[in-house]
Amino acid sequence: MGVIEYDPFAIFTAPPSNETPEEKIERERREAEEKRVSDRIDEEIKAEKAALKKQKGVVKVLLLGQSESGKSTTLKNFRMKYARAAWKAERLSWRAVIQLNLIRSIITIVETLQAEMDNIPITPLSSSLQHHHHHRNPNHNYNQQNHHQHPSDPERPSMDSDFPESEAEVDSETDGAPIELAEKHRVLMRRLGPLRRVAADLKRRLGAGTEEVVAGSSGEGAGAWASREKEFVVRGWKNVLEGPFKGAKEGHGEQEDGDEATEVIASCKEDMQALWTDTTVREVLERRRLRLEDSAGFFLNDLDRIATRTYEPSDDDIVRARLRTLGVQEYKIQFEQNSSFLGNVGLGGDFGRDWILYDVGGSRTVRHAWVPYFEALNAIIFLAPISCFDERLREDPTVNRLEDSFLLWRAVCGSKILAKSTIILFLNKCDLLKKKLREGAQVKTYLPSYGERPNEPVAVVKYLKEKFKDILRQQSPEPRVSYFYATSVTVSFVLLLSFPALVGLR
Ligand SMILES: Nc1nc2c(ncn2[C@@H]2O[C@H](COP(=O)(O)OP(=O)(O)OP(=O)(O)O)[C@@H](O)[C@H]2O)c(=O)[nH]1
Ligand SMILES: [Mg+2]
C-alpha cells in the first residue's frame, strides 16, 4: 500500500471485534472516562503550547511508541544526565512511586495465591506479566473467537501474514492440579493485608487525578484477577511534584520522613521477603504464568534496601520505576554550554541548547492526543520494544505487541505532517529479548516469517531492524533522515553520548 490516506490513527482505537455486549459497555465507559481526563489535560496544555510555538531555535523531539515501550524511561535518562539539578530535587518524590510499584507486586502475589486456593481457572494475560513460553492454557478464549478478524478488517494494513491469529499450538499443554498452600501461606497473606490500604493511600497521595485503568478484556475471572491488569496513572511524575493532580489533602505529605506508608512497608519487610522467597509461592506464580521479574516496576529483589524507614531512591530505582503516562507532557532540557553531549552531536555553541522533549501516553485510547504535537518537530524518537514478540496489548489482547509496534511505525512513517522530521528508532528492551531467547522462547512461533533463522538476539535484532527499515522506505512520503539503534534503556544509555542521529537536527 502507498501513502496512507485515511486517518492512520483510526486503527489504533478500533475496538476488539469479539467483545461481548457487557465488555462493550464497560469499554465505552472506560474510554469516555479516559477521554474526559485526556481532554482536560489537552485544555491545560493548549495555552502552554501556544506560547511554545513562538519559540525559535529550540530543538523539539517527540517520543512515540506503544505503552510500556520505554518512552518515559528514555526521557528519564536524558533528564538524569542533562537536567541533574531538577533530577536530584525530584528524587524523594519517586519514593512513593517505587513503594507503590513494590506493594503492587506483593498484592499481585497475594491475589494469585488466593486464586490458586479458590481454584479459579487460569485466565490469559495480555501484559508483560505473561509467561512467554508457557502459553499452555486451553481456555485462551480470544484465539478461537478472533479467528477471522484480521482478513475481514479493511482498515488493517496487510501485515497479517506475519503474525498468526492463533497460537493454539503452544497452548496445548495442561496446567496440572492446583498447588496446595500451607497454613504459613495463609498467615503471610493475612499479615500482608495492611498493604492494601497503604497502596490506596499512596495512590491518593500521588495525585487526586490518579486513575486506575482496567485492561480491554475484562472477561471471566475478574474479581481477584482484575487488579493485576490495573495500573495507576497520573499525567507523569511532573504532576507528582508540582502538577494539578497533587493531593490537596496531603499537602507536603510526600516530603515527610517516616510517613505512615513507609512505616507499614518497613514493618512488613520480613513477611514480604518470606512470601517472595517461598518455593511454593514461586511454583504457583509459575503455574499461573506470572513473570513478575520481567514486568514493569519490579522491585522485589531489592526489598532489603527499599522496605526501610530511611529508603531514598537511587538513580537506577528511578529509571526503573513505572508510572504510566496519560496525555502529553513536555520537558525542557537545557544543555550546559560545554556538555560533552552537545559537542558529540555537533550542537555546541548557542544553538540547540534548549530542547523540548514531549513524552506521551502510549495506550491505544490516548494516542489521539499525539497528533497536535506532530507539527514543527525536529525529530521523533520511536520506541519499539522488541522483547514483546510473544506478548499482547493490555488494552486489546487480540493484538500482538510487536505487530502493534509495526502498525504504529507504519502510520508514523506514512504521516505527511511528519515527512520532514528525522526519525530515530530504538529497538528497545534488548536485555529482555536476550533473556527470553535464552529461556527458550521461539520467535518464529509468533512471527512465522522469521522462518529458520537462528533464534539468537543478534539475528533477531538484525531481522527486525530490516523490517522496520523496509516499512520506513515504503511509507515515507519523501526520503528522510533516519537512525536505528538496538537499546536497553533501563540498563544503559551510553549510546546517546555519541548520538550521531542528532547531528543533522536543525
Ligand atoms: N528490562 C527493560 N525494561 C525496560 C526497558 N525500557 C523500559 N523498561 C521498563 O518498562 C516499563 C515501562 O517503561 P515506560 O518508560 O514507563 O514506558 P512508556 O512507553 O512511557 O509507557 P506509557 O507511559 O504507558 O506510554 C518501565 O518499568 C521500565 O523500567 C528496557 O530496555 N529493558
Ligand atoms: Mg510513559
UniProtKB/TrEMBL annotation:
Pfam families: G-alpha (PF00503)
Keyword Protein biosynthesis: no
Gene3D superfamilies: GI Alpha 1, domain 2-like, P-loop containing nucleotide triphosphate hydrolases
SUPFAM superfamilies: P-loop containing nucleoside triphosphate hydrolases, Transducin (alpha subunit), insertion domain
The keyword Iron is annotated on this UniProt entry: no
Gene Ontology molecular function: any one: GTPase activity
Record-annotated membrane-spanning stretches: 483-505
Binding residues annotated for Mg(2+), in chain numbering: T325
Keywords from the named record: GTP-binding, Magnesium, Membrane, Metal-binding, Nucleotide-binding, Transducer, Transmembrane, Transmembrane helix
InterPro entries per UniProt: Gprotein_alpha_su, GproteinA_insert, P-loop_NTPase
GO cellular component, one term: cytoplasm
Renumbered residue ranges of the record's region Disordered: 14-35, 124-180
Residues given in the record as GTP binding sites: D294, S295, N428, K429, C430, D431
Comp. bias regions, Acidic residues: 162-174
GO biological process: adenylate cyclase-modulating G protein-coupled receptor signaling pathway
Basic and acidic residues bias spans: 21-35, 150-159
Protein's name according to its UniProt entry: G protein alpha subunit
Organism from which the protein derives: Lyophyllum shimeji (Hon-shimeji)
